[in-house]
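Field guide to reading this record: the first block holds the primary sequence, the second block holds the structure written as discrete tokens, and the final block holds curator observations. Each block starts with its own label. This record concerns 1-acyl-sn-glycerol-3-phosphate acyltransferase, catalogued under organism Nocardioides szechwanensis.

BLOCK 1 — SEQUENCE
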Amino acid sequence: MRVDIELPRTDATPHPPRFMLEKLRPFARWLFRRRYDVRVHGAEQVPATGPVILAANHIGVIDGPLLAIFAPRPVHALTKIEMFRGRLGRFLHYSGQIPLDRYVADPQAVKQGLRVLRDGGVVGIFPEGHRGAGELERFHRGAAYFALVTGAPVVPVIMIGTREPGGHTGSLPNRGARIELVFGRPFTLEQQPWPRRRGDVESASLRLRDRMLDDLREALVTTGRSLPGPLPSGEQEPDPSGGVTGTTT
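BLOCK 2 — STRUCTURE
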């Protein structure tokens, strides 16, 4: 059987728009820092050039904007398709974010992410699949898949302080709250040609999750902070069931 490291191909897939991706970041940082005490740790861990996957835990509604604004390089983040409506949707589109349907296979989102990486860009992904405690209990395989296909290093990102303890799913931190973004050491999985078997992706995802858990524990010790705990009862988002590390789906 012929193996091909370039599958799936992305030649015909356009790069996500970059019209506003870089221009607005300095102003957005200024706005955020007027309201919050944002502290970025380990930004030097993100390679200055070449493809990179930023894999972050997910606890609050502002995690995505923070990642896009405060990462040392512009980020094309996989963003739930429900956000791409009206003015917000147009803004997300022109700032280069990638719409993702979390409940069905979404080959277009996959190809757009691969296109960004093959063009030497940065893709952001939240492996938990939804907001929650941020403890990485559920961990989808997408980050590992992107790494196996492209050979891009994965940089763990630990979000702390983006939701208050007991805070609702859409709640914002209190004004003046301290927010931490902790970038961990890059983790590289050996690039693997097609066909990539589910077991190989599962094994790689388990290794990536273990590494992110180590970075999470280290970040909590370094910052002296804690995670906010689970969302209030009844506020958990429907959980995408497929592609979860440690399950058979």
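BLOCK 3 — OBSERVATIONS
Residues 103 and 240 are 5 Å apart (CA to CA).
Residues 25-223 form one domain.
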